[in-house]
Amino acid sequence: MITDTLIQTERLILKPMEPTMREELHPIFTDSSVRRYLMDNKIVGIDWVDDVTAASQRQFEEGSCGLWAIYQKQERTIIGFCGYIMFDQLQLGYGLLPNYWGQGYATEASRAVVNYGFRQAGMTEIIAAADVPNTASFGVMKRLGMTFWKTEGALAYYRLPMNNAN
């Protein structure tokens, strides 16, 4: 259930996305630096955030994994998101407001979400993808212990089998 999915790390609190977070989440998805890679530069409206939040909630309610809003413990404001997005299969995804880049937050949140996927959700492998020029995202994947798997179109895919998790 959603109430059992709160995650805390040294510096972060991760809460499953909820409709009440829409106003705080929307600026993350519409920031030009974030959407450059994450959204293929598409500008999205608040209704899109509602759809993403609803899909994430369904994933949690069905016993799978969804998306968490990332809060910095000191500020108590949403600084990004991390979690699993359904494409052909669940994929790890994350995004932070640019002010929080380069401080290890994406790696810290992703590591916690990967651990949740393996330990609580019974996942046996984690997949992540990023646009080929998105070197920062590949850095996060490598710090998680992920290894290159394949390239499809503009995306490079990395994966992490459960027995290789850091």
Automatic annotation (TrEMBL):
<keyword id="KW-0808">Transferase</keyword>
<dbReference type="InterPro" id="IPR000182">
    <property type="entry name" value="GNAT_dom"/>
</dbReference>
<dbReference type="GO" id="GO:0016747">
    <property type="term" value="F:acyltransferase activity, transferring groups other than amino-acyl groups"/>
</dbReference>
<dbReference type="InterPro" id="IPR016181">
    <property type="entry name" value="Acyl_CoA_acyltransferase"/>
</dbReference>
<dbReference type="InterPro" id="IPR051531">
    <property type="entry name" value="N-acetyltransferase"/>
</dbReference>
<protein>
    <submittedName>
        <fullName>Putative N-acetyltransferase p20</fullName>
    </submittedName>
</protein>
<dbReference type="Pfam" id="PF13302">
    <property type="entry name" value="Acetyltransf_3"/>
</dbReference>
<feature type="domain" description="N-acetyltransferase">
    <location>
        <begin position="12"/>
        <end position="163"/>
    </location>
</feature>
